[in-house]
Amino acid sequence: MKLFTFLLTASLAFLVASCSSGTTNSMVGGNMINQKWQLIELEKNKSPIPIQMNDLEEGAFIRFEPEGKFSGNAACNHFFGFYSFSEHEIIFESVGMTRKMCGPKSMAIEDNLMPLFNNQKVQIHMSDEKIILQNNDTKAVFEKNID
Fold first, then answer.
1. Residue 46 belongs to a domain with what CATH number?
2. CA-to-CA distance for 107 and 121, rounded, in angstroms?
């Protein structure tokens, strides 16, 4: 009887663990959650887009929340939406943003960064200190910001 109880308990634990989504913390080890990630490099068609922080209205960043939400700033406007994971890709959905005009340098960064978040799958590569988001023509490197 003890063996039956043990097997039943183990089976239920396995079933519950395998049925949970596990798409946020298990995919990233929690390293990216509740952290502010500052944009430090941006490329479009393998050409660097200059990021001079003192020339921007605001620093571009992204923050991931544990419940599958994300938010950030694209050097001018704030953006927000939902994310999930699929193998080595992150899927951004229901993305919205504010719409104000800023200086040309801020708008250039925003115009080149935001296509990554345009309701699509994007490749993601992570380390403890950096996140790289990349699609066919855009690459953004974010570094953990310690405030």
1. 2.40.128.270
2. 23
